[in-house]
Amino acid sequence: MPSSYRAIFAAPGARSFSVAGLFGRLPLAMMGIGIVTMVSQLTGRYGVAGALSATGALSMAFLGPQISRLVDRHGQARVLRPAALLSTAAVAGLLICAMQGAPTWTLFVFTAASGCVPSVGSMVRARWAEIYSAEPRLLHTAYSWESLVDEMCFVCGPILAIALSTSWFPAAGPLVAAVLLLIGVYWLTAQRATEPPAHPVVAGERGQSAIRLPGLQVLVITFVAVGVVFGAVDVVSVAFAEEQGNKAAAGVVLGLYALGSAVAAVVFGMLHLKGSAPRRWLIGVTAMALSIIPLQLAGSLTSLAVALFVAGMAIAPTMVTTMALVGQHVPRSSLTEGMTWVSTGLAIGVAFGFSAGGWAVDAVGAEAGFVVPAIGGAAAVLAALLGYRRLTRPVATGEEQQVDEHDRQESHNGADGPDGRSGDEGDAGDDGRDGPGGGDRRDAGHGRHDDATLA
């Protein structure tokens, strides 16, 4: 392991919670494609399969931020365990109904209920942010590591889900995903020493949602379009592999898509970046969109696999930079919620991508269906361009202004700020270095320096 990655695991407990996070987020890579594989095997209808996966993704998009908001207020252990149990019970109901040939509407009901699955990736990143909030370079490496873990999941997840459902029994993929979710969540929440502190709403405060922040809105809207790319690529790739006479190979093909991103994550995490994070983010989104275009020219599984591997190399750098931007636009008391909103935007897009990709396959065939992710990529670039200026000028939120006012009062009274320094010094930033584009575009000096230097 490169020294830059070894350094982040010097913190006590870091290795354990990262491994637990691997188990907890692997189901995310398995569940959607597992449902598609299960339902298409049992019914032969890709439209229904895609619509079910879309329902699950939309449910996660609606419930995920609410769960993360509760986590910010009450802590990970108190919220994640009951949420994971509810999600697993709903998945069990879905599998029973699917295997017993129950009416289609029952599948949609249980799939919708399964969306209370916790955003384990956001929980792990929040722990890294708590540990390395004063060391932005190490935090950048930690976020890159977590992007690598994400891609490891998306390399192994589709292969595992498809292999289980095609070689064992149709419901095997989603079943194993549910079991892994329980293992990961209970293991992660058992590690209380690294759990970020809760931020209860103080009496008299409104506790508004992080989604009201303009910069976060830009990231979320853009990632809705990015999610369309991911969801459509999954469904259309499975159908394409079936048309080529080797449906099981779809897991390997999609795994190479994630492997390309994993390779990029390793390299990106070792770089000492300077300059503007919004500019890097815009370049990353554009690269992701352009890299999808060659998929429409794939005439074989081999050419599709190569094209997806290359396309995947734009994913991890864009995701890492996105999390850096979340750190600049969202106060620490809502950091988990802010990260989850990005995942929510992605999930909404994946839902549309699953559905649109499934219907496109049914209507015009798999090869022509690759136009759906191309359209999603174009929409992502458009959203990024329209919202770019909001990302270059982070603004103080009402909550942050209250913190500023409190710090100024403490400073006036000669008291120390919340980090042990005087109020004015705390407002000046953690290390005296400017964020992207200079000190006037820092986090408005609220002691949040998660990725300001790197970004």
Structural class designation: mainly alpha
SSE order, as H and E? HHHHHHHHHHHHHHHHHH
Low-confidence stretches: 396-455
- Count of helical stretches: 18
Please characterize this protein's 3D structure.
- The protein has 455 residues and is mainly α.
- The chain has 18 helices and no strands.
- Helix 9 packs antiparallel against helix 13 and helix 10 packs parallel to helix 12 (301-312).
- The two termini are 24 Å apart.
What would you say about this model in short?
The protein is mainly α and 455 residues long. It has helices at 3-8, 14-43, 46-74, 76-99, 104-113, 120-131, 136-167, 172-189, 214-243, 250-269, 277-292, 301-312, 315-329, 335-364, 366-369, 371-392, 398-412, 423-427. 60% of the residues are buried.
Keywords:
mainly alpha; 0% strand; 455 residues; 18 helices; 73% helix; single chain
Write the layout of secondary structure elements.
Layout: H1 3-8, H2 14-43, H3 46-74, H4 76-99, H5 104-113, H6 120-131, H7 136-167, H8 172-189, H9 214-243, H10 250-269, H11 277-292, H12 301-312, H13 315-329, H14 335-364, H15 366-369, H16 371-392, H17 398-412, H18 423-427
Helix pairs in contact: 2-3, 2-6, 2-7, 2-8, 3-4, 3-5, 3-14, 4-5, 4-8, 6-7, 6-14, 7-8, 7-10, 7-13, 9-10, 9-13, 9-14, 9-16, 10-12, 10-13, 11-12, 11-13, 11-16, 13-14
